[in-house]
Amino acid sequence: MWYACSNDLKINAPFAETTFVYGLLDIGDSVHYLRIQRSFLNEDSTPYELIGDVYNYRYEEDELEVWVEAWKNDVQVATYPFEYILGDTVGLALEDGLFEPEANVLYRFTGQLDSTAEYRLFIHRWLQHDTITAVTKPVSSFQVLFPVAFLYGINLTDTFDVIYVNTYATNAQIYDLVMRFRYREINLTTGDTSELFADWPLATNQTGDNLNGLGVMAYEVKANLFYAFVAAELEVDPAVRREFVDLQYRFYAGGEELYWQYLNELATLGFQELYATTMYTNVRGGYGIFSSRRLQVSDSIQLSDQSLDTLACGYRTFGLGFPSSTANPFYPGCE
């Protein structure tokens, strides 16, 4: 008896549509956005060919019904239907890449959220006759303890650690801190002025030890690393002069779902294997993340005179076109 075998290996299983969801609620916002897309697979085409047709991964307006319900003490208190929009029409453009601009479909609802409620997401797929769900509790407001605006400005010239501090937020378990350096450029020929900024992540994925809002989160950063950051972000440009505007500290608190997603990402790198899964999701019937975050901003933080002089005259940032402080006898220049 003769036996024969085939060398053809089929790696694509029969296609089954999968829905991917990503959305973050913020009680400080009145407009909330959700991205919903579907997976695509075709054994006769490459992924790059499939990406060229937005209908392979974009839902049309009549294919989904999307809404979120607010619940308190097991009682539904509000319902918010999402509307179907193109992100480009509201200033949320899709970053340059493989996907076509027409793929930038978002779902939006308007409403002031209640930090004590639970929010339940529903995505009904009309063609499949099923409903995808997810649940999250909004992260509450919290307090920034340092820095706050004060008369003489923050000193970033020394080698000591600056300790930035915020209180915990209820329903948050992961925290980030970003410094936004805001400055102005004036073209020396035309006089045109541009308002610009550069973001410096001071801390990422710092985890809290509870969800009840009790405690503080502290971030230690070498003060004078600020000048290395500025030198790396800005280029010497003899055609402009620059002016320091202020510093803005952006404190982010993320919900429990973002914490579990972070642990799962660590697991895929070989850490925290206890939490490893193929893909973390809190979306039932699909994949993705429906969670919450809260942004608290400490705004209009000034630099001390000494820090302004170092920005203008220090060896890292000299030549970037910033003036020294008005307290410097050589203002706006350096000695």
- Average pLDDT figure: 87
Low-pLDDT residue spans? 1-7, 45-51, 97-101, 270-277
Strand proportion, as a percent range, falls in 35-45%
Amino- and carboxy-terminal Cα gap = 97 Å
| Cα-atom radius of gyration | 25 Å
Gross morphology: elongated
Number of helices: 4
Query: What class do helices, strands and sheet pairing give?
Result: mainly beta
H/E series: EEHEEEEEEEEEEEHEHEH
Tell me how many strands there are. 15
Largest sheet: 8 strands, mixed
Strand arrangement across the biggest beta sheet: 5-6-2-1-15-14-11-12
Number of domains: 2
- Portion in helices: 10-25%
Molecular structure report:
By secondary structure, the chain is mainly β. It folds into 2 domains: 19-136, Immunoglobulin-like (Sandwich); 144-276 and 293-313. It is built from 4 helices and 15 strands. Strands 5-6-2-1-15-14-11-12 form an 8-stranded mixed beta sheet, sandwiched between helices. It has a 4-stranded antiparallel beta sheet with strand order 4-3-7-8, with no helix packed on it. Strand 3 (64-72) and strand 4 form a beta hairpin. The longest helix is centred in the C-terminal third of the chain and has 13 residues, at 256-268.
